Every structure is written in structure tokens, then in C-alpha cells.
What does this fold into?
Amino acid sequence: MTRTWWISLATCLALCGLQIDAQAYCLNIPTGQTKPVKWTGVPVTYYISSTVTDAKIEAAIDAAFTTWGSQTCSTLTFKKGAKFTMCTDKTKTTCKTGTVHFEHATPYIYVFWYAAATGYPADPKYASYLFTWFGMTQNLNGASIAVNAFNTTYAWSTTGEAAKLDVQNELTALVGATIGLSDSKVAGATMYPGMKFGDTSKRSLAQDDIDGLVYLYKKTGCADPPPPGANGCSGGTTTTDGGSTTTDGGSTSKDGSTSKDGSSAKESGTTADLGVSTDSGATYDYGSGKQCTSSSQCASDEFCTAEGLCVKKGGDEDGCGCYVSGPERKSIAAPAALMLVVIGLLLLRLRRRRRRE
It folds into this structure.
């Protein structure tokens, strides 16, 4: 074991240690910009497609908007508009008056419930898809949410049924992404990436979510929330992956791209693609990659994601993990106490070596 390897390990563990309970909400900052996107006019009107015919599903969607729009120290509020007819033809010129295409680019939020695959704007393997528009001054002026209700992998529920995705749970996270927030680093926050079958924990906001909301839409007289760092994340740091440094947050899509007209897209409601980092810099160990509909079908150290795959618990999925350069690049994740012990032993070892020299 070389001294260089020890130093790399110490650096990796030190960075992970800084991330524990330190990284929090992240803002949507367009590539090449310094300010986060946000709505400048309230209330923000949202519309639900006429394909939503179940009153319970519609109520769950309404509840998701209400959750974000009813926070005491936030000026952000929502207003519900009439249902709209979806135009599922991807050629915008064929859309008739009274219908709305997914890429509408108007100052509203539209929720598209795709009961059929026709016109779905993303890969059918994704449970949902999100698209936003913003102006040159980073003011949000439109957003679309697409829900995949045609892929049989995604059965939807309004009661938190096992092996089904909860409508309110999923939509609350998606609405958060339409108001200027990105993936949080706090496990348990609504904006923490990844959805699980049967989960309802994202229906209510964690303090971290509220902090991000209030930072963007603070009401006069309320206390200032923890501010974001230069990377757009509150308490944000950098992560190490095989010796390379990656900034957390600050991008607007999974591939980090932003189109020239000020629009950004993101597959939402699922964990990252196999072997691909999310827009917040976190990676996931997909373990066996076995298909599933509930965590009971996975190994004891795995859980079932909304993509229907068995994913390893811990590591980056828990918000802390890094790699040490080497032929095997094994993932290293440890509790804070263990990190301190290892770093302490390393410093003691180097100190003794200097004394002998």
C-alpha cells in the first residue's frame, strides 16, 4: 500500500465527511449562468390534461401544488385553471386551437397525463419527464410535466399501495423542480433524487425543501434560510470520482445541457440511468440490476426503484460515496465516525514517519 494511495483515500473520506449533513437543497442554475431560475409573477397557474378522469388522481395532483404553495414564509402560490386537451402530435403546426403541445412555452405549468404512448416526450422507461422554459433574466415562464401512465411497469395509486407509484408523492417532487429547485443532497427531502414504489414520504416537505423554497420566494419578515454556495447548493461541496472533481448542482438536465432558447429538460421521478450521474452529481450503484415491482423481490442490501430495478442501498444513494483511483475503483462509503478514525490513524502514521526521518 503506497503513501499516494493513503493520501487519495484520506482526501476521499475527508470530502465525504464534509458532505454528511452539510449538503442540502440545490437550485436550478442554467449552464453558464450564476443566478437560479424562478417565477417572478404569482400566483402561477397550472393546468391538468383532460386525460385525468379519476377524481382521486386529480385531487392528488392538486395536493402536490398546494404543498408547495401554502408555506408560511414563501410568496409562491398557485392557481388552478381549466382542464386542457393534449395535442400528442410532435409536429407543433398540426395542433389545433384549444389543444396544448408538450412544448407549449407559455407562462403556465401544464401536467400531461399520458394514458397512451403517443406523443410521450421521453423514453417510455421513465415514469415522468419535466421541461421548463426561462427568459434571459432567469425568470421561469413555462413548465411541462409528463406522467407515464401507459407503461405497465408504472401502476399509479393515490393511497400509497405497495408495488405502485403514489401520484401525490411523485407530483410533489416534480412540482418542486418546476419552481427552481434541483436535486437535494438530504436523504428524506422531497427533492432528494429517486422514487420508490409504495412511498408517500415526499408528500410533505422536509425543512431542507422549505429552505430552498424560501430562499427563492422569501416573504418579508421571515428569517433567511441557509444560503447556497457558488455551485447552487446550500452547504455544497465537491465530490471526488477517481481523482476528478465534480461540482454538485448547477446544471439543468441529466446530460447537463441547456438549449439556446432557455429551455431545460430532465427525466424525473426515477433514479439515474445505469452508470450515469444525475444532474446533482450523485451516482448510483445498480447492484444486480434485477427487474422488480417491490423491494421484497430484491436482495437484502437493495431496494426497488421507480424504474423497476434492484438498486444497492448505501454509497452514493445515501448521499455520500466516492472512488479511489486504481484498477478496481471500489466504492468507499463510511459513517462519519469511521472516517475520523481512519483519517486520525493516517495522520498519526505520517507523524511517526516524520519523527523517524
Q: What stands out?
A: The longest helix spans residues 336-356. The helical segments are 3-19, 55-69, 167-178, 207-217, 336-356. The CA atoms of residues 243 and 325 lie 6 Å apart.
